[in-house]
Write a structure and sequence with these properties.
The complex is a heterodimer of chains A (233) and B (228). Chain A is mainly alpha-helical. Chain A has 10 helices and no strands. Chain B starts with a helix and ends with a helix. Classes of the chains: A mainly alpha (233), B mainly alpha (228). Chains A and B meet through α2, α3, α4, α5 and α6 of A and α1, α2, α3, α4 and α5 of B.
Chain lengths: 233, 228
């Protein structure tokens, strides 16, 4: 791939376009944070707990964010810094975005990141990632409010069952997400098992050591990774 | 009765603004994401010609189209209202948003399904977005120079093993609470994915709603027991 393509991909105009989009994500998070604090005051939910929840989100996200960061560097070398920044801030999970970018290059008839990857291929990769993200977002934008009705109907006004329903849905989602890694075997299987067992153990431990709770997911992640490195390869 | 009134008020003060903020920001985000493509078009007159653009669109919709619909519906019971708007706009739902929401609930000891839980989960997800944005922004600006601080083994481990380790950890967190249900939560997708080789877009709703169904059976059983 010629440095000229990458120079265009990293030009200031692209940075500005990406910055506008990324700021929408930031503004949304800030608006919801403000709304949550305001609503907490109205229902007498202590501020302390709000701070605790927010801080937990900040801390728990550190580990996964490092992983995203590392994948990101590879993607930047092909589609440029600003668009990678945009794609991994908006809906993007790296595997999906890389697939979409590759499909774009294929539609152009060149291999992703190859010497033939020209400006038109770059434009097609960008277009494909944007139209793909649009698919999810337009559905979420237009139909999410209808889903609350679905949940209420499934919940049937029984708060105890609603809690069990959310738990079951989470187990279903993560059972599915784990399945791919379990079937892959090797280090990834060990990472799943290591993460699960250490989390169970850590949560037992936090019954006594309360301050540890905010760090449990991060620790479980590191334990799962370490076991995968030592036992999996 | 007092409880009911509070519930009613909560829906009004919470759901309405959440939906308003949500649909507008998500729509704007989805449209603004085309800016870099438009910039290339305006400045360099480069845009995929219509047949190529449609071909790329067709290919990508074949790969992901079913997920556009299946994921919001299947993840809703996990993410909730504000969580769905935030989770899909910022992405990384499985490896970031849900784990952070679940930890926020764990730490604040909020009971799932209550207004308090809705607020705690919202703040947990919002916090995770801030960290994530700082991370990707740093990576975009400083970029390749920073990756050198990680030895190759560590970088490789983060790339390959963080995601399965997080998925396992969240599963463990909920398996303690619902041990019986958790067996089915894992067995159902394993069977459909591994044995029957169903495509992923079909396995997601089967796993989620199948597990919810099993949970309902257990719930009814326990209810009958406690009444008897």
């Amino acid at each position: 791939m010629s440095p000229e393509i990458l120079r265009i991909a990293n030009s200031p105009g692209v940075w500005i376009g990406a910055a506008i989009t990324v700021s929408v994500v930031l503004i949304q998070a800030l608006l919801y944070t403000r709304l949550a604090y305001q609503t907490a005051d109205k229902i007498n939910y202590p501020r302390e707990k709000c701070n605790m929840a927010f801080r937990t989100g900040l801390i728990t996200a550190i580990g996964p964010s490092i992983a995203i960061f590392i994948v990101m560097v590879g993607m930047m070398s092909v589609v440029g810094g600003p668009v990678t920044w945009l794609r991994l801030s908006v809906i993007g999970a790296a595997p999906t975005e890389l697939t979409a970018a590759t499909i774009g290059a294929e539609a152009r008839g060149v291999a992703f990141g190859s010497p033939d990857y020209d400006l038109l291929a770059l434009a097609t990769s960008w277009w494909t990632m944007a139209i793909n993200g649009f698919g999810w977002l337009i559905i979420v934008s237009l139909f999410t409010h209808k889903l609350e009705g679905l949940r209420e109907r499934l919940g049937g006004g029984d708060p105890k069952w609603l809690a069990a329903l959310s738990g079951a849905a989470t187990l279903g989602v993560f059972g599915y997400l784990d399945s791919g890694h379990i079937l892959a075997g090797g280090g990834r299987l060990i990472a799943v098992i290591g993460g699960a067992i250490s989390m169970v153990f850590l949560l037992q431990l936090t019954e006594k050591i309360k301050w540890l709770r905010e760090y449990t997911l991060g620790i479980a992640m590191l334990v799962g990774m370490a076991l995968a490195i030592f036992l999996g390869s | 009765m007092v409880e009911n009134k509070q519930e009613f008020d909560f829906t009004k003060v919470w759901n309405e603004p959440v939906i308003r903020i949500g649909w507008i920001t998500v729509l704007l985000g989805s449209l603004f994401a085309f800016f870099p493509s438009l910039y290339l078009w305006i400045t360099y007159k480069v845009f995929p010609p219509l047949p190529m653009a449609l071909k790329a669109w067709g290919l990508v919709a074949t790969a992901f189209g079913a997920f556009y619909v299946v994921e919001p519906i299947s993840y809703y019971a996990v993410l909730g209202l504000s969580g769905t708007y935030m989770g899909f706009l910022s992405g990384n739902i499985g490896n970031l948003r849900v784990p952070c929401a679940a930890m926020a609930l764990e730490v604040t000891e909020a009971e799932s399904g209550t207004p308090e839980a809705e607020i705690a989960a919202t703040l947990g997800i919002a916090g995770s977005i801030i960290t994530n944005l700082i991370g990707v922004t740093l990576a975009a600006i400083i970029g390749a120079a920073l990756i050198k601080i990680f030895p190759p083994v560590i970088a490789e481990a983060f790339k390959t093993y963080t995601v399965p380790a997080i998925f396992g950890a969240v599963f463990g967190q909920f398996a303690i609470r619902y041990p019986k249900v958790s067996i089915f939560g894992l067995a159902i997708p394993l069977f459909f994915l591994g044995v029957l080789k169903f495509p992923a877009w079909a396995v997601i709703p089967i796993a989620v709603f199948g597990t919810i169904g099993i949970s309902r059976l257990f719930y009814n059983q326990e209810k009958k027991h406690s009444q008897a």
